[in-house]
Specification:
Elements lengths: L13 E3 L5 E3 L1 E2 L10 H10 L12 H20 L7 E5 L2 H11 L4 E4 L15 E4 L5 H14 L4 E5 L11 H10 L3 E5 L11 H4 L3 E5 L10 E5 L1 H6 L10 E5 L2 E4 L13 H15 L3 H20 L4 E3 L12 E6 L4 H12 L1 E2 L1 E3 L4 H6 L6 E5 L6 H17 L6 E3 L2 E3 L1
Parallel strand pairs: 3-15, 5-6, 5-7, 7-8, 8-9
Antiparallel strand pairs: 1-2, 4-10, 9-10, 11-12, 13-14, 14-17, 16-17, 18-19
Helix pairs in contact: 1-8, 2-8, 4-5, 9-12, 10-12
Bound molecules: 4'-deoxy-4'-aminopyridoxal-5'-phosphate.
The site of 4'-deoxy-4'-aminopyridoxal-5'-phosphate (PMP) has 14 residues, from helix 3.
Keywords: Aminotransferase, Pyridoxal phosphate, Transferase
Organism: Orlajensenia leifsoniae
Catalytic activity: (sulfur carrier)-H + L-cysteine = (sulfur carrier)-SH + L-alanine
């Protein structure tokens, strides 16, 4: 992992430091949004002069846009090895994709207590039942099974990889449990899809949601891919042109999915970028890709554990694999101050906060904000070492600059 796997834009970006001078920008906040692949940026630049309204335009640009947009469905479906009859709905992001699924479920949904808010809040509207996770994945799956045995559900929804700790869940095993109890499985793939090959067919995943901006594509396009039947009859995500077959003044006949849920002019460039990103990522050797990610993670965790008072967080004692997303706390230290220092004095971008997972942070006993470092295919060992070096300096000599807490954040 001393080299990046693929080229990304912004890797030679330089940023000003408060101490004077400038530094290479070290982007360790890729779980929030990942930098576009160079190939994606080139594709977008090629497409910009040609983008036009899809589906209805007769002109050349409209035809190109329609073809790019519609062929993206097959590319995305192929990338995650969707079943032949699965549908790919383009949304704004994972949040919208999961919200759409929540409105389509014909029954109750069972979920764990470790989810990102995007896979928690939509189920709070009435149809969600929460299983409390245990210390181990193994016992958590037993609890899940017991819950489904006690009362049936239509859907089980879990995160593929935690956006707080990077730990993954055994999706194949969860699918088996869900299916045996008559439920389908949905996976919030926002953090898993950018780090590991996901295979719907192999793992028995019925629905998968993910975001383009976390898988090396700019602009707001996301995906819900999965079984068509529920989505064909669910209330349309938006009401408007494109989603309807026939309209009278007081009624309408809606198309089936995906058109049903894609009313209005779609984000053609965003979808084209997403499709190019997954084609590039899909060409990586799956093991080399995962090894690059694991090597960086191991290097970071080992380095953090060697620092006094620094604690990486984890949910389970037996999780088998984890992606390049690591959150940690430093004893007696405000995470927001550390994050401000890393940026202002070292040009390192991490994230501080509660990571849209307030119940999980509470469960882990983290009171207040924590720090999170996350990487991707453009990351290198030098990025990890830059962070470890800066944290060492912080712990030994403290910030060189004076910081003040104003407007809810620390600033030099
Ligand atoms: N789920 C997980 C696990 C995430 O990490 C995120 C993004 N932080 C989301 C859902 C939501 O993604 P988006 O903001 O693109 O809708």
């Amino acid at each position: 992992a001393d080299r990046s796997l693929l080229g990304v834009v912004g890797s030679s970006l330089r940023v000003p430091l408060v101490t004077g001078g400038e530094s290479r920008y070290v982007n360790l906040d890729q779980a929030a949004s990942a930098p576009a692949l160079t190939a994606v940026a080139e594709h977008v630049a090629e497409l910009l002069p040609l983008y036009a309204s899809v589906h209805r335009g007769a002109g050349y640009a409209s035809q190109v846009s329609t073809s790019v947009y519609e062929s993206a469905r097959g590319i995305v479906g192929g990338f995650v090895n969707a079943r032949e009859n699965d549908v790919v709905v383009f949304t704004r992001n994972t949040t919208e994709a999961l919200g759409l699924l929540a409105s389509a479920v014909p029954g109750e949904t069972v979920l764990l207590d470790i989810e990102h808010h995007a896979n928690l809040l939509p189920w709070q509207r009435g149809s969600g039942r929460i299983v409390l996770s245990a210390d181990t994945v193994a016992e958590t799956l037993e609890r899940l099974d017991a819950e489904l045995a006690a009362r049936p559900a239509a859907l089980v929804t879990v995160t593929g990889a935690s956006n707080v700790t990077g730990e993954t869940l055994p999706l194949r095993a969860i699918a088996t449990i869900a299916h045996r109890r008559g439920a389908r499985l949905a996976v919030d793939g926002a953090q898993l899809v950018p780090h590991r090959r996901v295979d719907l067919l192999r793992d028995g995943i019925d629905y998968l949601a993910f975001s383009g901006h976390k898988i090396y594509a700019p602009f707001g396009a996301g995906v819900l891919v999965g079984r068509k039947d529920w989505l064909d009859v669910a209330p349309p995500l938006l009401q408007g042109g494109g989603a309807v077959a026939e309209v009278t003044l007081h009624g309408a006949t809606w198309h089936p999915a995906p058109a049903r849920h894609e009313a209005g002019s779609p984000n053609v460039v965003g979808v084209a970028a997403l499709a190019r990103a997954v084609s590039e990522i899909g060409r990586l050797d799956a093991d080399a890709w995962a090894d690059h990610d694991r090597a960086l993670r191991t290097r970071l965790i080992t380095g953090l554990e060697a620092l006094p008072g620094v604690h990486p967080h984890r949910i389970f004692s037996d999780s088998a694999d984890a992606v390049g997303v690591v959150s940690f706390s430093i004893d007696g230290t405000d995470a927001r101050l550390v994050a401000a220092y890393l940026s202002a004095e070292h040009g390192i971008g991490v994230r501080d906060g509660r990571f849209c997972a307030h119940p999980l942070l509470a469960k882990l006993g983290i009171d207040g904000p924590a720090l999170r470092a996350s990487f991707g295919v453009g990351s290198t060992e030098a990025d990890v070492d830059a962070l470890l070096g800066a944290l060492t300096l912080f712990l030994t000599s403290g910030p060189a600059w004076r910081y003040e807490f104003v407007g809810g954040q620390w600033a030099p």
